[in-house]
């Protein structure tokens, strides 16, 4: 057996610690999909790595510690279903995923804070957590029963039920979702 294969398999099997991961950090079963940084009460990763966190570096994301969720962690949270007529095809779609407030609670975010919801294309939405709560904004992980894909509207989409919310329902369809970044991968939490 190739020594590199053996060493990699042993490290993955948990026979010895992997460099950079402390025993206090919860293990992730898959790649990190959503990073919550800033005013978080829980952490499971260290600072932005200038060599390996290329998208974050290109977008100017900086932190010393953060909380990262993978698909399994997002899937363990209670899913909420919404229906929204989307601007892209003017059709009603069913979206599901955990409440944004629940995701932030897992990361130990408390109080009335500001959020910077960042998408993979660099689009950033400043939003108060209080608004996200009142609109019952979700972190959608699926649409019409299928996972949201990277390269489409995923892997996550921060979205609310615009068709029924007083603040959005009477706006033209193209204006209802300006506060809903698709391709969500980072949330920066700061003082309100």
Structural features, described:
The protein has about 190 residues and is of the alpha+beta class. It has a single domain, classed as Oxidoreductase, molybdopterin-binding domain (Sulfite Oxidase, Chain A, domain 2, Alpha-Beta Complex). About 20% of the residues lie in helices and about 30% in strands. It is built from 5 helices and 11 strands; from the N terminus they run H-E-H-E-H-E-E-H-E-E-H-E-E-E-E-E. It has helices at about 5-10, 55-60, 70-75, 100-105, 130-135; strands spanning about 35-40, 65-70, 80-85, 90-100, 115-120, 125-130, 140, 140-145, 145, 155-160, 185-190. The protein has a 5-stranded mixed β-sheet with strand order 2-1-11-5-6. Strand 5 and strand 6 form a beta hairpin. The chain starts with a helix and ends with a strand. Mean pLDDT is about 90; it is low at about 1-25.
Total domains, how many? 1
| Structural Rg | 18 Å
The structural class is alpha+beta
Q: Mean pLDDT, as a whole number?
A: 88
Q: What is the CATH architecture term?
A: Alpha-Beta Complex
Organism: Variovorax ginsengisoli
InterPro entries: OxRdtase_Mopterin-bd_sf
Protein name: Molybdopterin-dependent oxidoreductase
Which SSEs are present, and which pair or pack?
Blueprint (H helix, E strand, L loop, with lengths): L2 H10 L21 E5 L15 H5 L7 E4 L1 H6 L2 E7 L6 E7 L1 H7 L6 E7 L4 E5 H6 L3 E3 L1 E2 L2 E2 L9 E3 L24 E8 L1
Question: What's a quick, concise take on this entry?
Answer:
By secondary structure, the protein is of the alpha+beta class.
What would the keywords be for this entry?
single chain; 192 residues; 18% helix; globular
């Amino acid at each position: 057996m190739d020594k590199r294969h053996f060493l990699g398999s042993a490290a993955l099997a948990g026979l010895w610690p992997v460099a950079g991961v402390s025993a206090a950090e919860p293990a992730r079963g898959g790649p990190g999909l959503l990073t919550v940084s800033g005013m978080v009460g829980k952490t499971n990763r260290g600072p932005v790595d200038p060599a390996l966190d290329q998208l974050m570096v290109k977008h100017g994301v900086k932190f010393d510690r953060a909380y990262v969720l993978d698909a399994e962690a997002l899937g363990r949270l209670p899913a909420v279903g919404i229906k929204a007529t989307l601007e892209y095809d003017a059709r009603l779609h069913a979206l599901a995923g955990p409440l944004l407030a629940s995701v932030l609670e897992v990361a130990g975010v408390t109080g009335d804070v500001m959020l910077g919801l960042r998408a993979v294309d660099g689009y950033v939405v400043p939003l108060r957590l209080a608004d996200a709560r009142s609109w019952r904004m979700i972190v959608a992980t699926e649409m019409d029963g299928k996972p949201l894909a990277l390269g489409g509207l995923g892997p996550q989409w921060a979205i609310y039920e615009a068709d029924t919310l007083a603040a959005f329902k009477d706006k033209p369809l193209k204006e209802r979702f300006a506060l809903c970044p698709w391709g969500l991968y980072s949330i920066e939490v700061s003082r309100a």
